[in-house]
Structure formats: structure tokens, C-alpha cells
Amino acid sequence: MDKDAILNLLVSLKNGQIDVDEALNKLKHLPYEDLEFAKIDHHRQLRGGIAEVIFGEGKTTADAVEIAGRIYKMSGRVLLTRASQEIYDMLGIEGARYYPKSRIIEAGQERVKQGRIVTVSAGTADIPVAEEASLTASFLGSNVESLYDVGVAGLHRLLSNMGVFEGANVVIVVAGMEGALPSVVGALIDKPVIAVPTSVGYGTSLGGLTPLFAMLNSCVPGIAAMNIDNGFGAGCLAHKINTLAVRS
């Protein structure tokens, strides 16, 4: 439940559109709802600007579905990351959408989009993580544009698309292998860059450690590195930066 939802609830109570018992019923699970196997943080949107998001991997299908249903009932929106087709099939929320490449499930009315974020992937194999970042930021309320497969092995592909960065408030760059693309992009634009290493690569990529180290050691200023394959974290950070830029 966010600030607008609580304000609308109080206005409805004041105007006599709902009674005290109904208002209490809507608020009774704040600040969290205890399901024993999970404590759902319904106040997170109010505190930090981003509602609780469900990490589907490692949860049973039944638990993920139960948590999602409770969040959706309280807020009318829900986002799940690293979710399976089985979770989506069992979800039972009308209008829910599943993106199998990034394993994202989203449900609920779309928010009015603001600002502009650009998400870039070095290779086609990096798209699942890039899409996770883009869908997360879009769900939260940011305009997102994607540019895929413009890695350093064919630098001309990036250079011929430089116009895409015009008007962006922040850029997410996703890369595996040697992880060089964020440094290249960061050296060419005046936007903050969020670098996301992926676990794509041969043996000495070390499951994403090599691109992570490359991004952490970049000599280009204005680059922040996320954890390996953490498109969700990049999408959240980009949305917050984008929101601050719009407000200013």
C-alpha cells in the first residue's frame, strides 16, 4: 500500500463511502502480514518507494502463489522475479503477464510512465538479464528503451545507435565475457551508468566474476556495478535515479 492508496482510503472514510470496520480491515495487515512461512512487508512502498517484490527461485510454487495473491489483494499490483512457468500457471490473477526469457511475472494496472531509461546489452545471450532490468523499471513507472547486441566485438553497432541515449536520465549496461561495454558506453555519454555483469562466458569468465571485476575496476567515472545477473537490482536503482531526475 502506497501513500496515494492510504490517502484515498482516508478520504473515503471521511466522506462516508466506507465505514470504520472496512477501513480497519484494509489496514489490519500493516506494517506486515504474518503467514508463518513469510512476513509480507505491505509498508515497503510507503517507506522506500518500491513495494515488496517476490523472488520466485527457491520458493515452492504454493508459497510463491500465496505471497503474490496477498500482495495483489492489498495493492492491486505484484511483481515476481526468477519465476517459473508453473508459478504463472497457478497464479490465478486475471491479466497477469509472464516473460519467459527473463522469468518475470507482473500483474496489475500499469503506472503512468515517466522519465527515460536506456538498457543496453552486449550480446544476445545477455538479453535475459537486460530484460529483467527493463521490465522491473517499467513496472515501477519508468519509460524504458532497449538496445541489444551492441558489444565491443562490433563497436560500430553501438556507435551507429548513439542517438538512443539522448534524453536518458540513466543507462543500464549489461555484459558478460570480459565486461568491457559499460566502460565504453560510460566514456561516450554524460549519463550515470549502471553496469550489470552476467554469467555468460567461457571458463575464465568464472561465472561472471571476470566481468564484475572489470566493471568494478573501470577507469571511467560515473559507473556503478551491480551483482552478477542482478537485472532486478539494476532496474530498481535506475528507476530511483530516473525518478529523482524527473522531480528535479
Quick synopsis:
The chain is α/β, with parallel strands linked by helices and 248 residues long. It folds into 2 domains: 3-108, no CATH class; 114-247, 3-Layer(aba) Sandwich (Rossmann fold), CATH 3.40.50.1970.
Primary descriptors:
about 250 residues, alpha/beta, Rossmann fold, 2 domains, about 40% helix
Structure description:
By secondary structure, this protein is of the alpha/beta class. The protein contains ten helices and eleven strands. The protein has a five-stranded parallel sheet with strand order 8-7-9-10-11, with helices on both faces. The protein has a four-stranded mixed sheet with strand order 3-4-6-5. Helix 6 (127-140) runs parallel beside helix 10 (231-247). It is globular. The mean pLDDT is 91.
**Which term fits the overall shape?**
globular
Report the radius of gyration as a whole number of Å.
Answer: 20 Å
User: What topology, given as strand order, has the largest sheet?
Assistant: 8-7-9-10-11
Count of discrete domains: 2
Which stretches of 5+ consecutive residues score pLDDT under 50?
Answer: none
Question: Roughly what is the average pLDDT, rounded to an integer?
Answer: 91
- Could you tell me the strand content as a percent range? 15-25%
Broad structural category: alpha/beta
Q: How is the biggest beta sheet arranged?
A: 5 strands, parallel
Number of strands: 11
Oligomerization:
single chain
H-E string: HHEEHEHEHEEEHEHEHEHEH
Specify the helix fraction band.
25-40%
Spatial gap, N to C terminus: 25 Å
From the coordinates shown, what is the CATH architecture of the largest domain? 3-Layer(aba) Sandwich
Count of DSSP H/I helices: 10
The CATH C-level name of the largest domain is: Alpha Beta
- Please name the CATH topology of the largest domain: Rossmann fold
